[in-house]
Automatic annotation (TrEMBL):
Record field: transmembrane: 6-27, 39-60, 72-102, 123-143
Pfam families for the chain: Spore_YabQ
Lineage: Bacteria, Bacillati, Bacillota, Bacilli, Bacillales
Coiled coil regions, renumbered to chain: none
Keywords: Membrane, Transmembrane, Transmembrane helix
InterPro entries recorded: YabQ (IPR019074)
Species whose genome carries this gene: Paenibacillus thalictri
Protein name: Spore cortex biosynthesis protein YabQ
Amino acid sequence: MTLSTQFVTLGMMFVGGLALGVLYDMYRVLSDRLKVPNWVLAILDILYWLVGTVLVFRMLYASNQGQVRVFIFIGLVAGIIGYFALLSRMVLRFIGFIIKVVQAAIRIGKRMIDIFIVLPIKFLYRCLVIIFGFFIAMAIFLYKVVIQLLYPFWRILVWLTKPLWRWALSWQWPRQIYRTTLSWWKRLFGPKQ
């Protein structure tokens, strides 16, 4: 391995250490803000180390075909220390800003859905309830008016049909129909005298 390749590899590992620091801060802030359960944190820990390992070894393979030397670890540690000493606060502020922007976008989206979908549906529902209630009130009012106007006629009709109702409600009419029908039958089809 030539000296220039070693310097390229050292630089790549320094950048890899910076990337691991950025990933760690992102992971730390997001897991803290999202309030994930402990079992999810364990899965996220494993995922962080898998992504970090793949990232470092991919960079190592791109710079010197995957040869592992002591200066590789020195570059990684220097990158991580450099990140936490110089860039961590700035990255944490940037991540906090991005989280606030996303939260604001979600809040605006919810408000837009509320304004353009939920409130019109509520308004239509209330209008339909008011219209339906108005029609029911009108129907009840008209029913009462009609009942009041027709009440005298109803009394006259009841008075006129009272004998009919008495006859219909007594159980004598089926016998009378039977007797009348039988007498007519005998008269028409019975033996002649």
